[in-house]
Design brief:
Elements lengths: L8 E6 L4 H11 L10 E6 L5 H8 L7 E5 L3 H13 L4 E3 L2 H11 L9 H21 L13 E5 L5 H12 L3 E5 L4 H10 L8 E5 L2 H15 L3 H6 L6 H18 L2 E4 L5 H12 L4
Parallel strand pairs: 1-2, 1-3, 3-4, 5-6, 5-7, 7-8
Helix pairs in contact: 5-6, 6-11, 8-10
Length: about 280
């Protein structure tokens, strides 16, 4: 039984990032893990999209190498196959068998567009990063406010968190949200926090006091579990206090020249689309 020695090298060539070929190779080689298989990847060549690039790569690889490639262009893949065959270099086009079978099954030819999976992957990982960032920067937390694509500020229970998560999950936006408290000291702290962020990325959320009162009353059971703690939170759902907070917020937003959005009785999706529109962000 033959095993691969330390001298056995694998080259990966791709018209994208090479991740597709690498994953398939890893999946196959895993089946040989109990046989003492030893190999190493000599190099991964990315963005291989013309014959000139192929020729340059072929000049530096040895005939004993195994070449695994994922190149969607039929002409380019055929050219590479010819060049490798001429030198008797063992090679495999990982896309060819699946594309051939899938074309027969679907009855149509593929688009032959390189880099599509890379675009999908990048979009996916961008969303994952955005979700992680948004969770870490919820309710005034987090230390990288300067990386935010958007900062939402507003009174407690004005939908900051659900809007933030909706934008992160659906549009890959890094969103920080910070509560506004009607206190000069807290306001100075808030302004210091968002100082690195452009004003155009800061949005103030407003809600009619009467509606906000109702929202807070529904939330009260989660905030307080005893008569004493409910008494201590009385100002939290006192309409006069909420109206005073509302005035404070409106004055703060105006003084800072932040974009303001009324979220009263509006769907999260609708509010989010308005924010994106104002930012000039294309969904």
């Amino acid at each position: 039984m033959n095993t691969m020695s330390d001298e056995n090298k694998i080259i990966i060539m791709s018209d994208g990032t090479g991740k597709t070929a690498k994953r398939l190779m890893d999946a196959v080689l895993a089946q040989y893990s109990k046989n003492g298989v030893e190999y190493s990847i000599a190099d991964i060549y990315q963005q291989v999209r013309d014959k000139k690039t192929i020729d340059a790569i072929l000049k530096v690889i040895e005939d004993e190498y195994l070449v695994i490639f994922s190149i969607i262009s039929e002409d380019l893949a055929h050219y590479l196959h010819q060049q490798l065959s001429a030198r008797s270099i063992l090679h495999l086009n990982v896309l060819e068998p699946m594309l051939g079978t899938m074309s027969k099954f679907l009855g149509v030819h593929p688009n032959y567009e390189p880099g599509i999976l890379q675009i999908i992957d990048e979009r996916y990982y961008r969303k994952i990063d955005a979700i992680g960032y948004t969770v870490e920067h919820d309710d005034g937390r987090g230390s990288f406010i300067n990386q935010a694509d958007l900062v939402l500020v507003g009174l407690s229970r004005t939908c900051k968190t659900p809007i933030s998560m909706y934008l992160a999950c659906n549009f890959g936006m890094k969103v920080a949200n910070i509560p506004v408290v009607a206190d000069e000291g807290m306001t100075r702290h808030l302004l210091d926090q968002i100082a690195p962020v452009k004003k155009s990325k800061v949005f103030g959320l407003m809600m009619m006091p009467e509606v906000l009162l109702h929202v807070r009353e529904e939330r009260l059971t989660y905030l307080a579990h005893s008569t004493q703690s409910q008494a201590e939170l009385s100002s939290y759902f006192d309409l006069r206090e909420i109206r005073a907070e509302h005035r404070y917020c409106r004055q703060l937003f105006a003084s800072q020249e932040w974009d303001t959005i009324d979220v009263t009785r509006r769907a999260i999706e609708e509010i989010s689309m308005e924010i994106l529109d104002r930012l000039g962000h294309k969904p």
